Amino acid sequence: xxxxxxxxxxxxxxxxxxxxxxxxxxxxxxxxxxxxxxxxxxxxxxxxxxxxxxxxxxxxxxxxxxxxxxxxxxxxxxxxxxxxxxxxxxxxxxxxxxxxxxxxxxxxxxxxxxxxxxxxxxxxxxxxxxxxxxxxxxxxxxxxxxxxxxxxxxxxxxxxxxxxxxxxxxxxxxxxxxxxxxxxxxxxxxxxxxxxxxxxxxxxxxxxxxxxxxxxxxxxxxxxxxxxxxxxxxxxxxxxxxxxxxxxxxxxxxxxxxxxxx
Amino acid sequence: xxxxxxxxxxxxxxxxxxxxxxxxxxxxxxxxxxxxxxxxxxxxxxxxxxxxxxxxxxxxxxxxxxxxxxxxxxxxxxxxxxxxxxxxxxxxxxxxxxxxxxx
Lengths: 262, 103
Hints:
The structure holds two protein chains of two kinds.
Chain A: H1 6-23, E1 27-30, H2 35-47, E2 56-60, H3 66-78, E3 83-87, H4 96-115, E4 119-121, E5 138-141, E6 169-172, H5 180-190, E7 204-205, E8 218-219, H6 225-234, H7 245-248, H8 252-258
Parallel strand pairs in A: 1-2, 1-4, 2-3, 4-6
Antiparallel strand pairs in A: 5-6, 7-8
Helix pairs in contact in A: 1-2, 5-6
Chain B: H1 11-22, H2 26-37, E1 41-47, H3 56-60, E2 62-67, E3 72-77, E4 79-82, E5 85-88, E6 97-98
Parallel strand pairs in B: 1-6
Antiparallel strand pairs in B: 1-2, 2-3, 4-5
Helix pairs in contact in B: 1-2
């Protein structure tokens, strides 16, 4: 896995977040208590002198890991977040595509309508999945939350679109070009707080965190950030191989994202 | 020659669960994790009887452990206590699968 220049990555991410705050009056950020969205919030604090000047949304289907809930309480308090918890209903027998599509995206639509956010900061990365590699830094969504991935704005010379369907919103992706090892290097260098579930226990750890129903642990003995970085330097396992919705159908993520999923 | 003591299967897990329910220390969670390896426990499910509106609701939450036939066998806490600090402790169950059956 190739490491990139962290200073340059951070600089661009700070620029993207500040541009978003400036161009869109009413923005919010999604937070899953995972390493990527927590890193994004850490970058946002750097961008705005220690503050997060927009609401932070957690879409809560009630089946996240208890460690994640505790992490949410602690960090929201420590970083003085304006936290919005968007509750989504869960049917116990659903999993994967059905669960994410039916529940989390529906809850997100309700919150967006209630608060009238016109832009949403989302911490996806291009290297996570093929469909995410098609994304833009500023990515328009229609009023129905759909994403026309075949017809996206060009982003040449750092010119990002601020045009949007008047009833839609724009997704902002500040860490789009970061890869997994960059995130961990940043966590190490900036002492970013991290969900303890990323560390190994009994020879297993969660490399990508979702809810309890869809997240499977992978073999690993990495118990510290340094050990995780060393492991990533040699691994040939995909980061999201422990996420059930990615296994379900061939184009499941493409379908989810075109319908509004993160 | 000494006589080998026959230990009832699950006796180690019984004791580990009792100790954990009495005190949610790191040592007791480690004991549980160790006892689970040799047990027939396969699934777990987290329940929040008081909902999840605040941090204190984590202390009222519990985990039910199920065997291979989805029969509920034990109920344990969700948290680990370390001094005044509490934290979630499902990482000690890593390797078990979540019970997604509606029971």
